[in-house]
Write a structure and sequence with these properties.
This protein has 1000 residues and is mainly β. It contains 15 helices and 51 strands. Among the domains are: 74 residues, Immunoglobulin-like (Sandwich); 61 residues, no CATH class. Belongs to the TonB-dependent receptor family.
Length: 1000
């Protein structure tokens, strides 16, 4: 074949290929309409599994070139409408009608003792999904709530592995009784540590906030209710899932302390202040104020970072495997989990094994039975260990090791400064809390007639713990005071059960009237007992705390028993008319064994109403309003909030001399008060639920006002009575606040880029309305009428006294370099009457934000949280800022004659602490945190199928990578987040984590 023939043949082949491609590819066009036949603008039309796509124009029309038109499938998607797939089958014209997506309104929400459609809910309820829980690596369920829903304030107590945060729903109500919410797991009230429940077993959490939602739980729901639903089986073939992760944990930073040279100069200045340092003969002066070890360290240029020696890289690992499936009759779910958090301090860790099993079985067509079992075993190490507190006191001019590499017991020859690294020596400090828990929920349900059901819930709950602590004679704490090795052991058991009889009836009449009734009779009982023993003189230290009987001395022994019971009756009536007008009436009666006869029963009514405005004719035709509901509620809830037997008084054993011999007797320790009764909170809530632009923007807005009366708190008595207080019902508080939550779908492209965002905002103002005896203030407890329930009451630092300052007739003569505090009453003297309210830890507002972005198989999520306003108190600035010269000090800008600053006072070797030193510890508590950034990639469906799997996803996340706060950036702190006081404890951390999720 000559060259021309070959060219003609190639051209013919290209022409044939083009014609074949034209035959397989086809232009498809059509219209996309709503149910009322109006055109839908901006509907995404894409070829399933391909890359081509388009959107409908202003007339709802689209044109699209479709390859392989005979086998292609078009995918139509639009916000507010159900996704629709349409086979092309060679057609050139395709027009469809999209159905409105009602799943938002038909979404089922878990409420007290049942479920409701979201559109029928009249109370203030927020939901947190399993996806939101898994977006942030957490140890327990409470941590997953931080920043995810308005009105729920979650604050970490410390960064210790196994520590649980403090949770407050709509503020603090009680001054002395409990303020923690009630947790209900699979319908059974739950008490104790939520660390026992692995977050991976949680399917969803609902937070009940207003009186209508919580009154159904009566006294147990006084501080809000968190309903937790665990993983259940579903109708499908068995699906096996595995989730695993490993993360490296690092401290966010270190306390900014003085280095060797800075500390040495600070001590010199402390002695200059008292005239005992001669700068003309520095070497001789140094030898006089530094012990030989310290002087040698200065000469060598020693600058030991004791924090760095104690800190190391920790890790967090989490693994779970589950099997889920079932038929229409039988559904099951089984899961196993393992979690370990090794802290950045070697002696602190938390380890947990857990198993969850759920089973739901239909018997015939009207009987259903089921069970949930949650079991866990955990071991927490070093819960009271505070290595950082030990390290930050150590002098940087001392060395931890001698020339042979052995630890020096007292590096500074100071009995108050033993080497903190000794705690890391094997056997010098051992502390374990081992805990086992079995929480079970059993139910049986029968549908007696259509709409009428009876359900029996039984919830046995058993937990046991063993705590042991051993401190060898070379332990840091014992070296300070001296003495033999000590050991203590505590063990306890708690057995609780709940039995509930629930009757429900739901019926619709004439297609417009819907009636629902729930009736309850329940009994809850808990019995806990514990015993403890403490000894000194453990001669064989290898025995640790396992053989207390061999110790030289028993220093303490005790035991306790506590039992309480609550008997309850409840009725709830729901009425709805035409999906427009909704009313809920609730009444609950609780009888508590904690109160005396005649005061045991409390009655808690509530009423709520809602108006589904979007179902009215004037809004039904609106294309911009998807749903709009106005709701309001009013009710009363109570709080038992006291320990069992508080109404009966207490006796205390005391030793005394009788007949020349030591004997034991008993004296009243606490006065009895048989008139104690319930704290009562009256609550009003008004809210608006909305959805706009086919639910592209949804949200809620709430305003609430609460008043709590008959506070359970100590009434102060004259000491001449022999008692300083008696527990009474006195005082009142209030909480007022605003909440808002918004969810927006910003970009929605099935085959491309997607972007959604959740934001929430809360503002709560608590106030004390009344104190005991009509008093306006209780300075000892920091309570003031008209002020928040917790305030900082102290001297107000306004600067540092400077050389040449005029004293304006003050009755004392301050020295330059001392703290200047405000003379609030203008009487020219500083005394206790000059203290004032400096601020409150209550923030001005809190907010949370979650950003979710995805492109094809990639997904990125960013979770952020902020607390703005409020004040924090820092123990670092109070306890590690002595400027005394014996211990190391914060690296601060202190006053000297050549550095006349107004920041911090002059060091003084004659003062263990500066005068009014506590005034140095108050700071702006505002902060903004990125809680987590997570990037994941899911393997393509075709690849996964070739691997005979259903799904495979890899992810990498960074936990707490950023904190912006005045306390951190301006004042060199580490983390401003704490309940009321920033304690000296395990440092805040960040984590880089890698994970994998697989489905088979």
């Amino acid at each position: 074949m000559n060259r021309i023939s070959r060219l003609c043949f190639a051209a013919l082949c290209l022409l044939l290929c083009h014609q074949l491609a034209q035959a397989q590819s086809k232009q498809v066009e059509g219209n996309v309409l709503a149910k009322d036949k109006s055109p839908l603008v901006g509907v995404t039309v894409a070829v399933k599994g391909g890359t081509s796509g388009t959107q409908t124009d202003a007339n709802g029309h689209f044109k699209l070139q479709v390859p392989n038109a005979s086998g292609a499938v078009l995918v139509f998607s639009f916000i507010g409408y159900t996704r629709h797939e349409e086979p092309v089958t060679g057609r050139g014209v395709i027009s469809i009608v999209l159905e409105e997506d009602q799943k938002k309104l038909e979404e089922i929400v878990v409420v007290g003792y049942g479920q409701q459609k979201k559109k029928d809910v009249t109370g203030s309820i927020a939901s947190v999904s399993s996806k939101a829980i898994q977006e942030v690596p957490v140890t327990n369920a409470q941590q997953a709530l931080q920043g995810r829903t308005p009105g729920v304030d979650v604050v970490s107590n410390s960064a210790k592995p196994g520590d649980e945060p403090t949770v407050r729903i709509r503020g603090t109500r009680s001054l002395s009784a409990g303020n923690d919410p009630l947790y209900v797991i699979d319908g059974i009230p739950y008490s104790g540590s939520l660390n026992d429940i692995g977050p991976g077993t949680i399917q969803s959490m609902e937070i009940l906030k207003d009186a209508s939602a919580t009154a159904i739980y009566g006294s147990r729901g006084a501080n809000g209710v968190v309903l937790i639903t665990t993983t259940r089986g579903k109708t499908s073939r068995p699906v096996v899932t595995y989730s695993g992760s490993y993360g490296m944990v690092k401290n966010l930073g270190q306390t900014d302390l003085m280095n060797g040279a800075q500390f040495a100069e600070m001590r010199r200045e402390a002695y200059r202040t008292i005239g005992r340092y001669n700068d003309n003969n520095r070497d001789s002066s140094d030898k006089a104020i530094f012990v030989p070890q310290e002087y040698a360290g200065i000469q060598k240029g020693t600058s030991t970072d004791w924090q760095k020696l104690l800190l190391s890289t920790g890790y967090q690992t989490n693994h779970s495997i589950g099997v889920n499936g079932g038929t229409e009759k039988t559904k099951y779910a089984v899961g196993l989990g393992y979690f370990k958090d090794q802290g950045v301090l070697k002696l602190q860790s938390y380890e947990r094994y857990n198993i969850n099993i759920s089973l739901d079985q239909m018997i015939g067509s009207r009987v259903k039975v089921g069970a949930t079992m949650l079991a866990s075993y955990s071991n927490r190490k070093g819960e009271t260990y505070n290595g950082i507190n030990n390290a930050i006191r150590m002098l940087p001019i001392s060395s931890p090791y001698d020339d042979n590499g052995n630890l020096i017991t007292f590096p500074n020859n100071d009995s108050n400064l033993p080497n903190p690294l000794l705690d890391y020596e094997n056997g010098n400090r051992v502390e374990n809390r081992k805990r086992f828990r079995l929480f079970t929920s059993l139910y049986g349900e029968v549908e007696i007639i259509d709409g009428l059901k009876y359900r029996l819930n039984v919830g046995p709950d058993i937990s046991q713990f063993n705590y042991g602590r051993f401190q060898g004679k070379n332990n840091f704490d014992l070296l300070i005071g001296g003495g033999d090795a000590t050991a203590s052991k505590t063990s306890g058991e708690t057995i609780a059960y709940t039995v509930e009889n629930v009757v429900t009836y739901n019926k619709t009449f004439n297609k417009k009237h819907n009636i629902g009734f729930t009736g309850l009779y329940s009994v809850q009982r808990q019995r806990g007992d514990s015993s403890t023993a403490n000894v000194r003189g453990v001669m064989v230290e290898a025995q640790e705390y396992y053989n207390l009987g061999q110790a030289m001395n028993v220093t303490g022994v005790g035991s306790s028993l506590g039992t309480w019971t609550i008997l309850s009756y409840m009725g709830r009536l729901n009425y709805g008319y035409d999906d427009r007008y909704l009313v809920t009436l609730t009444m609950r009666a609780d009888g508590s064994s904690r109160f005396a006869p005649g005061q045991k029963w409390g009655y808690f009514p509530s009423i709520a109403a809602a108006w589904n405005m979007s179902n009215e004719q004037f809004l039904k035709s609106s294309r911009n309003v998807s749903h709009l509901k106005l709701r309001a509620s009013f009710g009363r809830i109570g709080n038992t909030g006291i320990d069992p037997y508080a109404t009966q008084g207490l006796l205390a054993r005391i030793p005394y001399s009788f007949g020349g011999k030591g004997v034991l007797g008993y004296t009243p320790q606490m006065l009895r008060n048989p008139n104690l009764t319930w704290e009562t909170t009256t609550s009003f809530d008004a809210g608006l639920d909305f959805g706009f632009f086919k639910d592209r923007l949804t949200g809620t807005i709430d305003f609430y006002k609460q008043k709590t009366t008959d506070l359970l708190m100590p009434f102060l008595l004259p000491y001449s009575n022999g008692f300083n207080s008696v527990l009474q019902n006195v005082g009142a508080t209030s909480n007022t606040g605003w909440e808002a939550a918004l969810t927006g779908i910003i970009i929605d492209n099935p085959n491309g880029f997607n972007w959604s965002m959740d934001v929430n905002f809360s503002r709560n103002r608590s106030k004390i309305l009344e104190l005991m005896g009509g008093k306006k203030e209780d300075i000892g407890n920091g309570w003031f009428v008209g002020q928040p329930t917790y305030v900082y009451y102290d001297y107000n630092k306004i600067g540092i006294w400077q050389t040449g300052d005029k004293y304006d007739g003050l009755n004392y003569k301050p020295k330059p370099g001392e703290i200047k505090v405000e003379d609030t009453n203008g009487d020219k003297k500083i005394d206790a009457s000059d203290r004032k309210i400096l601020g409150t830890p209550q923030p001005d507002w809190t907010a949370g934000m979650t950003q979710r972005l995805s492109y094809k198989n990639f997904e990125l999520s960013v979770v952020a949280f902020a607390r703005i306003g409020g004040m924090v108190k820092s123990d670092f600035y109070q306890n590690t800022n002595t400027l005394f010269g014996r211990f190391n000090n914060l690296n601060i800008n202190y006053w000297t004659p050549s550095n006349p600053t107004n920041d911090f006072p002059r060091p003084n070797a004659n003062q263990e602490r500066p005068v009014n030193y506590q005034s140095l510890s108050y700071f702006d508590g505002s902060f903004f945190k990125i809680r987590n950034i997570s990037l994941s990639y899911a393997l393509p469906e075709a690849t996964v199928k070739r691997m005979q799997m259903q799904g495979l996803r890899f992810n990498v996340s960074v936990k707490q990578p950023l904190i912006l706060a005045p306390y951190r950036q301006k004042y060199k702190g580490v983390d401003p987040e704490d309940v009321n006081v920033i304690g000296i404890d395990a440092p805040a951390t960040w984590m880089l984590q890698f994970g994998v999720n697989a489905r088979f």
